[in-house]
Each structure stands twice: as structure tokens, then as C-alpha cells.
Write a structure and sequence with these properties.
The protein is an alpha+beta fold. The protein has four helices and nine strands; from the N terminus they run βαββββββαβαβα. Strands 3-2-6-7-9-5-4 form a seven-stranded antiparallel beta sheet. Strands 1-8 form a two-stranded antiparallel sheet. A hairpin with a 2-residue loop joins β6 (84-90) and β7 (93-102). The chain starts with 7 loop residues before the first strand and ends in a 26-residue tail after the last helix.
Length: 200
Amino acid sequence: MVATLAAVEDRRPPPAVLRVVNPVMLRLLRSCLHRVVSSKLMILSVEGRKTHRTIPVVVGRHPVDGLLLVSASGAWRHNLRGGAPVRVTLDGVEHTGHATLEEDPDQVARIYLQLLEIVGLDRASDLGLRVNVDRLPTADEIKPAVVQRAIARVQLDDDLHPPSDDAVADHRRQLDRPPSDQHRPRERGAEPTASSGTDR
């Protein structure tokens, strides 16, 4: 009997690969050569609540309606529970900001659906996913593939991505809207919106 593939699969790089690649990416993103990868990646620096040490993490870069949405699956994410100050390195420049953690599995799946609408099915790997259907999957189909992940919502303190008065609440309300029928990737440089949609 032939097994049926799930509509969506988890396709994050293995931890052993990340242990080798992440230090290289950290150095690259902080260097004058950051443009090679900074269109898709950024550095999120979190302070450990017990150690008070700075934990720099290479994550996907997904701006949506004044927020940066970050796929969070490592142990570092627990430092964001209840909200926490963070530093974000974008395009070689460090910014301060504040992050909150979304851990509700249904909400996380809906956010991944939103991001899939933005990047397009052909770039699902940018989200650490593999889509095995030729249509936009549903949130219920995405949920098993992201069950071990959370989403960090990062709001910067400067005007690089101007936030609304309550960007996190606005983003939650946007998730209640049904997905559009279109899931083509936007042109590079176009500002995505939450109505149209990491993991390192």
C-alpha cells in the first residue's frame, strides 16, 4: 500500500547543518557583504532570562504590516514569552525592538498560511516547508508541519517598518480574514500586506 504524502511537510535544515551554517551566516550578515543574504535573512538577538547572555539567531525575514514575523523553534524562543526587548540586524544595521511570542498552534498555522500567500508556493522552502499539493494549503493542513514551532512578532522601535497603534492586535485581526485565491510571490521590493500573508 502506497503511503499518501501529507499536504505540507516540515523541511527545516537538520540541526547538525544549522550548527555549521549559522556561525557563517552571523558573520556574513554583520559584514559589508551582507547583501548576499540579507534580502531573506536577519539576525534576531535575544537576552537569556537566566544567563543574561545575548543569544544571536539567524532567522528568516518576513515583514508584514509594520511587524517582522519570525519562525521560532529553538529553545531561545522561551525568552520571548510575555514579551521581551530584542535587537534586530537588518541590512547590516542593528535596530532595537520588542518581540512577543505566538504559541497557539491554530494561530501559528494561520500565520504560516499568510506567509505562504506572500512568498508563493515555489518558495515554501524559505519557511522551512514543503508543499505537496498544487494549491494553497489550508491552515489545518499546515498545522501538523509547524506543531513544534512558534511565531515571534517583532516591532522595531524606529520607523524602518512603521507600525500601527497596536500592530500585534491588528495582525491578529487580519488572520480572521479568509485567504485570497492568489498566492503568487510579490515582486521584489514590494511591501507585503497581512491580507495577502521563519525557519532557521
